[in-house]
Design a protein that fits this description.
The protein is mainly α. The protein has one domain. Helix 1 crosses helix 2. The two termini are 21 Å apart. The model has no long low-confidence stretch (mean pLDDT 84).
Length: 67
């Protein structure tokens, strides 16, 4: 058992739209995906984005650095 954290950088304008537009937020977060292929593609594109950070594999390094 471990801790996982994923972060996606958004601009202030994107953040405001996500707060105010439920439909846009659903699409943005992949709520409209139905097939395994759509879900896989969505997360592959997300992982390959320069605006995404997953610290699962770096968690021990990060904890050691912060302590």
């Amino acid at each position: 058992m471990g801790i996982e954290a994923s972060y996606r950088r958004v601009t202030p304008q994107e953040f405001e739209r996500l707060q105010n537009d439920v439909t846009h937020a659903g699409v943005y977060f992949g709520d409209d995906l139905e097939t395994d292929e759509e879900i896989y593609t969505y997360f592959e594109n997300l992982r390959n984005s320069d605006r995404y950070l997953d610290i699962d594999s770096d968690q021990q390094t990060l904890v050691a650095y912060l302590t």
